[in-house]
UniProtKB/TrEMBL annotation:
SUPFAM superfamilies hit by this protein: P-loop containing nucleoside triphosphate hydrolases (SSF52540)
Coiled-coil annotated residue ranges, if any: 462-489, 646-680
Name of the protein this chain belongs to: AAA domain-containing protein
Keywords, sorted A to Z: Coiled coil
Top-level taxon in the UniProt lineage: Bacteria
Keyword Coiled coil appears in the UniProt entry: yes
Amino acid sequence: MQDIVKNGLNLFKYLEEVIRLSYKVTYNVDNYNNLLLYEYQFQSEEFITIEKETELSPPVITIKRPDEPERPEIPEILKGWIEFEENDKYILPTKINKKSVVNETGEEEEIYFSDEDQRIESYQKYVNKLENWLEEIEPVLKIRDIYNKLFQERKALDYQDNIEFVVGYGLMQWQKDNSFLNYPVITHNMTINYDGKSNEIKITYPDDASWMLQDEQLSEFTSMSERESIKKVFNELVSSDPTEEGFLDLLYFLKGLAPGAEVKKIDKLDSAKISQDLKIFDGWLLFTRKKTIVEQIKDIDEFKKEIKNASAIDNPILEQILTPPEDKKIDHSQIDTHTEWDSTLDKKVLFPKKINQEQVRILDYLQQSQGVVVQGPPGTGKSHTIANLVSHFVASGKRVLVTSEKEQALRVLSDMLPDAVEKLSMTVLSNDDDRIKRLERVIDNITNIVSNSSEAQLFEKRSNLEKSFEHKRKKLESIKADMKKLSNADKAVFIEPMDKELYPADAQRFVKNEEHKYEWFNDFPAYEIEEKRTKFEEIIKLHSTNIPSAESLSEALKIRKDIEDNLEDLVNYKLPDLNQIITKAEFEKIAENKYEIAKKEADINKYFEGLELKNNLDDLKEAYNFTQEVNEIYSDIEESWALEFIENNKKEMDNIEKSLKEINELNNKMQKEAEKLSFTDNIELNDKYDYESYQKFIDQALERVENGKNAWNVLSFFGLLDKGQKEAIKSVRLNQELPETKETWKKIKAYIESKIIQKELIVKWDNFAANFIDNNLPEIKIEDKAKKVNSIVNKIVNAFNYNKSLKNQLKMKLNKVIYGSGKIILNNLEKEFTNILEVLELKIDNLKLNQADDKYSKQKEYLLKFKNKNVHPTALKLFEILEKDFAEFRDHVDSWGEHYNQLVKLDKDQKKLQEMKSYLDLNYS
């Protein structure tokens, strides 16, 4: 027992470490750039309704999608003179100032917009009308935009299991020391539901969810005692009867965290800036974030408490997980398995859905081992099999837990379960607002079964079902015996003097069609006709000109016997050129190739449903390389001070660009000098004197060394230097040694030059930083190494370039290669970098495989030519195999080999037929 407890504690400790390592606390809601909506944006009584059960409840929001506004019709006189953007209906049109037309004489001439005063006047009126219209529909467009965002986010929540949709209340904005907080103090899980009939989106909350205090964010900005006090106020509010004030008391309590703190309405957020003065906003906001780990950690703590001091583990599932597997090897080949027929007749196999041999074998293996791994590409019946297994075990009185990495798989399985089993199941999904109601329905179903029937009635019902099953089983056994008799009726018989076995059905066909037995022998020998007339009759006598000899006829008959099985086919069908048909080994290689292609396509669909990629290898490579380059840049700046600085100062981008250009040029010069030193080089100078004081002497010393003279004699030429300065110059050391060689003096010169440039760069950097209040730019010091300076400058330059151009350039490149509904990934680019790179790499690999697979296309093209030319059925079967899905090719390798061998045999018999014809001197084709 102690081993199980130890295993459990180690397991949960490991799980907790993994969860914590993979989770990063976010302090700024602006980082949730895929969806972030504030209360003040939901201002439309016509299209939006907001309800709250109590003042402590989250808002329930219903949004009706507004119809697309109709643009004012273009006046007839302006048609052909103005153009609207196809992709944006809600901007003013472009005016065409001149165009070419053909006049009445057939000549081309240019006409101008300004030629008609009426057109100019009409244009001005129409533009005024459009401007008024655009102003009127602006609120409608905002509602449509919110609706579209929520619609797309609903789809993302269905397919991405690591995110959650929440409402936050009490947004706190606060700069404390060098940390920034822009996060609500409490959050609540929400769901997005879509009603296609009414064209409405409803935002509501799961019935088992509750408000959660954002302790993770507060811990960075408050002390332990402050957080305990906040928790106390929060818990008192949620456990008390709600008042009209709601959570307002909590916000006012938070004011006590800092002097000068304010509580404001959420609609004042636009004008607010994060500063050292704490601001708390009364109002809610909606956003999507990565799932928090709070509940997971709580569950793990509960499990650890449950097993830490336990003498026995009451939870059977937990006990089974923690119990080490039995150390025994199972030979699956020795396990007696059911056939499809056996499983149908076995009353212990309770599968409600259709099965095949492989699926029932899984159940047989489960009876003998603790686990079975089932693998297969999409569409091979894995979910179907799981539905059967779940039904079997539930019907056998067992409880079944089904888990999945993706919630979509659980939805599919739930739909596959029979009603009787589904009513006893509880599906737990994150984007579901009826979890408690679902559980209540399951409990009610079980209660109704128990309460509405007595034990005697249930036993009687079971007995009747067993009798019915046994009756049907015996009937099926009888059918099975009859089928066996029928199969015996068609077994081959052998009777002397036959030289081969004959099936009864074949014998019947042979007798019936005997008159056509020699249709292949389409001989019409050459002969002369002689007419004779006697007293009693007229005679036509035929005189053959060419009769085969006995020897030729004997040889021909031998060959005919050889090719008898294929003779009819050889006469009635055309055969393909065997040299143009690929062998079994070649097809097997193609099958493996195509399987890899199908597998990669399936992998692509796993990432994003509806994603379609362009089949242009060069464009895909270009997109992949550029995505990789931008991803490396973004990984360096993600959630960094540089990206935050650029985001906070977007209005100053032109000035920032000019300053960064100058700073970057200086940095490049400095790095060029610093690169002349190795990582291990250490240069010592006397810090009482500036670098300019050293510069002249170093130049003189280097010149003397290059001319073969002693560098230190140059000190005598510096007569104006005082004794301290000369001592300072004499203190120059490279790696604790006096520089003597040309190479060492060059390194010292490079170091001095780099530091002089660095001083100039620091001045530029400080001036740049001084232009921004409350900036979070790091300080650059003269003692900083070139590598550190380079890291700072590169980070802010990359952040600037990413915001200004790189992100949009990447979207444009990806737009060129991505089609379909999968384009939604571009709305969440930063979070999907890794997935996009993997999908592009899979597609590139696929195209390379396809391009390398020339034999497949040539084979299909060749067989297609013969498809409608009375070609032999075996060749058609080869074509049918090539028409199948690539994923099925591997299942048909043996079939291909059989068909190929059949064609080889036919080809040999074709040559024998020609030989037979030569013996008989037959000239027909």
